[in-house]
Design brief:
The structure is a single chain. With 312 residues, this protein is of the alpha/beta class. It folds into 2 domains: 165 residues, Glutaredoxin, CATH 3.40.30.110; 134 residues, Up-down Bundle (Glutathione S-transferase Yfyf (Class Pi), Chain A, domain 2), CATH 1.20.1050. It has 11 helices and 10 strands. The protein has a 10-stranded mixed β-sheet with strand order 5-2-1-3-4-9-8-7-6-10, with helices on both faces. Helix 1 crosses helix 8. Bound molecules: glutathione.
Length: 312
């Protein structure tokens, strides 16, 4: 099987979720360090304009969004599982819900602490190309009380869930082993705890979560060796996209047929349409083919949750 290649940067918490999933699976992987903001021309060649981080590459198969990266890792390297004790559906659904609901309020808290230290060009990039709003401290300050309420409300259910698990002698949400849901809830907490002063724990009442947080932090990232973007593009060029055998033929719930020209666009932020020909689709995944002048024939995989698939 071709190497697992992660395109990412160190400060990305969504990438930290994938790095930890790679650690949980004990995988050896290749690490392509990308800039924290575009231009990223060689990643653009692979991901067709999808601008978010991380992106996972396996040969000529490109996985965009952690909600398809984790299921792909699970399919390619099933053990140890990211979905212990039959948790796949609930972990995937709640991970999506958690990240979707808590992301902007989490940025509000982050900005409260470090928003005035962020470089102007970073704030401009996030406003114009990613979030659609100004994440500077001054701009976000009026919404801080509302964001704090939202963050507290979400940690409210997480604390209840972890306390209930602990009462049953379980260190993680679904038992003895961490799940994709643990990793999702953990990564947004990681963003705050990594970048804010220690007082963030008190502000958000995180103390009951800390033993769980440390257990996940201890998983590590497996073993990675660096790779350049040029080498990653060459690896895609030299490979052939894997035949799609894990999705039903003509399985698109909206009746889209293989061969249809479509765009796939995130429905929350960084709404850059990626165009390609539908290869296969189901209620959980869509795969499109595109040919890139540098990277050759590629299959791009996206989750259905959080993306619009529109015929051109
Ligand atoms: N739903 C996406 C969210 C990814 C995301 O928002 N990543 C952030 C970095 S943590 C990002 O792309 N920021 C803008 C950028 O790096 O260009 C996923 O699960 O992968």
């Amino acid at each position: 099987m071709p190497e697992v290649i992660l395109h990412h940067y160190g400060l990305s918490p969504f990438a930290e979720k994938v790095r930890t999933a790679l650690g949980l699976k004990g995988l050896a992987w290749r690490s392509v360090d990308v800039a924290p903001m575009p231009p990223r021309p060689l990643l653009h060649a692979l991901a067709g304009g999808y601008r978010r981080i991380p992106v996972l590459q396996v040969g000529a198969d490109i996985y965009c969004d952690t909600n398809i990266i984790l299921p792909a890792l699970e399919r390619l390297h099933p053990t140890p599982t990211l979905y212990p004790n039959g948790s796949a559906g609930i972990a995937q659904g709640l991970a999506f819900a958690w990240e979707r609901a808590i992301w902007v309020p989490t940025i509000g808290v982050l900005s409260h602490y470090i928003g005035d230290q962020l470089p102007a060009e970073f704030i401009k990039d996030r406003k114009e190309g990613y979030l659609g709003f100004d994440m500077s401290k001054a701009a976000m300050a009026p919404d801080l009380p509302r964001h704090l309420q939202a963050v507290h409300a979400h940690y409210g259910w997480l604390k209840t869930a972890l306390a209930s698990a602990q009462a049953l002698g379980r260190p993680f949400l679904f038992g003895d082993a961490p799940s994709a849901l643990d990793l999702a809830c953990w990564q947004t907490t990681f963003l705050l705890r990594k970048n804010c002063p220690a007082s963030v724990d008190e502000l958000l009442g995180l103390a009951p979560l800390l033993p769980w947080f440390e257990r996940i932090a201890a998983i590590g990232h497996g073993s990675s060796t660096p790779m350049t973007s040029e080498e990653a593009v060459a690896a895609a060029q030299a490979a052939t996209p894997a035949p799609v055998t894990h999705l039903p033929a003509d399985g698109d719930p909206a009746g889209l047929k293989a061969g249809t020209l479509v765009t796939v666009t995130p429905d929350d932020n960084a709404r850059v349409p990626v165009q390609g020909t539908l290869v296969a689709a189901s209620g959980t995944e869509v795969v499109i083919h595109r040919r890139d002048a540098q990277a050759g024939d590629l299959h791009l995989h996206f989750p259905r949750l959080g993306f619009d698939v529109i015929p051109v």
